[in-house]
Design a protein that fits this description.
Elements lengths: L2 H18 L2 H5 L2 E9 L4 E4 L1 H9 L5 E11 L2 E10 L2 E12 L2 E11 L23
Parallel strand pairs: 1-6
Antiparallel strand pairs: 1-2, 3-4, 4-5, 5-6
Length: 134
């Protein structure tokens, strides 16, 4: 199987397992010694077991919607909408792969914000969205 197809399939399985709450399948994509970074909080989690434990301990109800997956070779990016207790947050996940799976992931989070009035004449709505006017 083409390596890019194999990785894309693994990513799709990962995000589906995240949505389904299947902890074992969600974390199967990670190498045993993988690193997960959250730059906004400065946190680093080392190892598949630690990554799984910190996600498994999350108190919120979570839902995952994949907006797109792009990449090739060893570097892949997933754009997602994650809702925590019904509040949507955008997430970008950058994953670096090696033979044993994801060896490094950096995940960025961004809350929805209202567009300023001065930009309305310049913008158009993204497909399937409405501009959140300020």
């Amino acid at each position: 199987m083409n390596p890019d197809i194999r990785i894309r399939t693994a990513l799709e399985d990962h995000w589906r397992a995240s949505e389904d709450g299947n902890d074992e399948e969600e974390h199967a994509i990670y190498a045993a010694d993988a690193i997960l970074d959250y730059p906004q909080s400065g946190e680093r989690f080392r190892g598949r077991a630690t990554i799984s434990a910190q996600r498994g301990g999350h108190p919120a109800s979570r839902h995952f919607t994949v907006l797109r997956i792009v990449g090739g070779g060893d570097l892949w990016v997933s754009e997602c909408m994650i809702t925590y207790d019904g509040v949507p947050t955008y997430s970008v996940s950058i994953m670096q792969f090696a033979d044993q799976g994801v060896v490094h992931e950096t995940q960025y989070f961004a809350d929805i914000f209202k567009a300023p009035a001065w930009r309305t004449a310049l913008a158009e709505p993204m497909p399937g969205r409405q501009i959140a006017a300020g």
